[in-house]
Amino acid sequence: MTKIQKDNKNVAKFPNLRFPEFTEEWETKKLGEIGEIVNGLTYSPNDIAENGVLVLRSSNVQNRSLAFDDNVYVRTDNYNPVQENDILICVRNGSKNLIGKNALINKENEGVAFGAFMSIYRSSFNTFLFHWFDTNEYKEIVYKNLGATINSINGSDLRKFKVPFPSIEEQKKLASFLSIVDERIQTQNKIIEELKLLKITISKKLFSRQLRFKNGNNENYIDWNTKKLGEVTTLVNKRNKNNEKLPVYSINNKLGFVPQSEQFEGVDSEDRGYDIKLYKIINKNTFAYNPARINVGSIGYSENLENIIISSLYVCFKTDNTVNDNFLYQYLKTDFFNREVLRNVEGGVRDYLFYDNFARIKFDLPCIEEQKKIADYLSSIDSKIDIESQLLHKFEKQKRYLLANLFI
Prior knowledge:
Structural class: alpha+beta
Radius of gyration: 27 Å
Strand content: 15-25%
Number of strands: 23
Helix content: 25-40%
Largest sheet: 4 strands, antiparallel
Oligomer: single chain
Number of helices: 11
């Protein structure tokens, strides 16, 4: 990798970090001066057809790359086809956070269409500018230019965006270097996605008994028993009646129990004026779930956490000695459990899975030895995912540092 040296940033037109062979000042240009904005295709539901042309939309942009899990095809001969190195930008969306997200069109995806809520930025400098489109500066400009009544940025505003502009040679060097960093991040994302897919596949086989573990030296498999969750769990409802200032936690869909200060960006329940006397005290080996969000995985297991409190809205329970807690936690993450949730929820505007409904859910339970083997095997994949995710976080942190210092 080319060595990068640090310059003194005496004036605003010099970046903090630079390749040693470049010393001249950077210019500042407007996007409209060096390229053009191309508008997307307007179509109606009647135009959608399986044999039509692919129309790229916001959902096709994931992690600054094109994804094709949610495609729409439209019958039309009148559209602006995308070209290699076009930057596809989301310019209108119901979610403000998605405005400005973008992806670079590669050679393989040339010729398809893009929707009216998207725009293309086209210039001869896009391999360089694409990296600027990932900087905090770009995101701040997008935020400042959002419409007052609708989440959008219009073409005239986009053309006025001011971008740093070094020499062509320095652009190429920066683009090449940052592309290597991006490729490593993309590779890391693929590693994690493949591990997650592996876990889903193995989980299905284990919980459907297509894949089995034998019990010690016993050549025969031991039958599983069908149980109701209420037969092996007990509701826990200990309140914080003494108003103790215990650590406040929430349930995160991905991580389980997390400090509320992390879940809500540094604001805890005391700052919010909540009465924590009603909160529930959680000790070791306790499960908790949000009855209104159980369908999106809002469930956690405290394991070694103790003397913490969570909102009174959560349903909390413990298991008896016939259940390996890690096995149950793994089961609660499966599609088998999610399908049972859908059959047992109740409510009007929002579905709820209260403990009485939860307790009625039937599931198949192996012997305690096989439970442990299943839990340990799936946990080993979880550990690998966690290690790879931490590595991804380091790469992304490195990228943010580079973007902040390689641009003026």
